[in-house]
Specification:
4 strands, alpha+beta, hypothetical protein PF0899 fold, disordered N terminus, ion transport, 326 residues, single chain
């Protein structure tokens, strides 16, 4: 610290002035005390121009101060200041110092300043690198988050699409199963209708069936006069059982025998044939109506099959497909 203090003050400080006065006093001739002439006072020496001296590592000024002092630096002035501080003649020190020493000292100072600049540049570079890495990590994490969110959204869309497709396939399979069940039930109904066509082939049984159908219709209508319609090929069968049917109805209902008018102008459709498979047809039976036509009792074999089929359909499905098909 003492060395640093002496370097800060330079050759123009108070200590250097006192040293200069002492050295000057020893060189001048001694005067007698009794001399009447007053001793000439020494004029104060003007302070020498400060010059930069290399600083110790423990006592360094800031870099701008060092640069400003370096601008006023002159090698020979530095040597002269050092000679004055040591009490040596200035001219001899300057003479002894050659250009190589001056260049060497300048190079040392340049290296020192350059080292300081390099260290500062390294600090700035390291700080900038750290800030760059932090910013880069933040940007990378933000982009990763966006990508993850995008893929999560797409994954949810894929899952929803899969569920929709699965539901559609499940519904399609259920529709196919129901369609197959309906086809099977309708096939059974068609087979039953084909069996009804064979009923009219047995004339004896078919006559008894027509008689029972007429009696049942009269009991339902309970009209004194009714209109009867049948197929054209069944006309003679109806005429043969009509009298016995009226008598049996009167005995069961305990009424007078009703008047039954057979319609000879309008007949029921005939049985289905290969030439007209999609037209209207009737497998057999009769249709009774009141004289004014407001009440109609349809007792054909096809209508009765439709009523029975609709009523027994749950039981048919249960027998064919089990509990789940009901």
């Amino acid at each position: 610290m003492q060395n640093c203090k002496s370097q800060i003050h330079g050759p123009g400080s108070r200590n250097n002035d006192s040293t200069y006065r002492q050295s000057t006093a020893t060189t001048e001739p001694t005067r007698s005390r009794c001399s009447r002439r007053p001793a000439a006072r020494l004029a104060p020496r003007p302070p020498a121009r400060p010059f930069p001296i290399p600083w110790t590592p423990n006592c360094l000024p800031p870099l701008p101060v060092r640069l400003s002092r370096l601008q006023h630096f002159h090698p020979r002035a530095a040597v002269a200041g050092a000679s004055r501080a040591a009490g040596r003649p200035v001219g001899s020190a300057v003479a002894k110092m050659n250009d190589a020493d001056v260049a060497k000292q300048i190079q040392q100072m340049v290296r020192f300043i350059r080292q300081e600049a390099d260290e500062k540049a390294n600090e700035i570079s390291v700080s900038a690198e750290e800030e760059f890495n932090i910013e880069k990590l933040q940007l990378v994490e933000a982009e990763k988050k966006k990508i993850r969110q995008e893929y999560e959204r797409k994954e949810k869309q894929v899952e929803v699409r899969k569920k929709i497709e699965y539901s559609m396939q499940l519904n399609a399979s259920r529709i196919k199963v129901l369609q197959a069940q309906d086809d099977l039930v309708n096939k059974m109904k068609d087979d039953a209708m084909k069996e009804l066509l064979l009923v009219s082939h047995n004339h004896h049984e078919y006559k008894n069936l027509l008689k029972d159908l007429i009696i049942q219709g009269l009991l339902r209508l309970k009209e004194p006069a009714v209109l009867l319609r049948c197929r054209k090929e069944d006309h003679h069968h109806v005429e043969s059982v009509l009298h016995s049917a009226k008598h049996e109805y009167a005995s069961k209902a305990d009424v007078h025998e009703p008047e039954i008018f057979v319609d000879h102008d309008v007949y029921l459709p005939p049985a289905p044939s290969h030439h007209d498979a999609h037209g209207q047809f009737c497998s057999g039976g009769i249709v009774l109506a009141s004289r004014d036509g407001k009440i109609v009792f349809e007792s054909t074999l096809d209508a009765r099959l439709e009523v029975v089929f609709r009523k027994k359909l749950p039981e048919i499905r249960k027998l064919l497909f089990g509990q789940t098909a009901a």
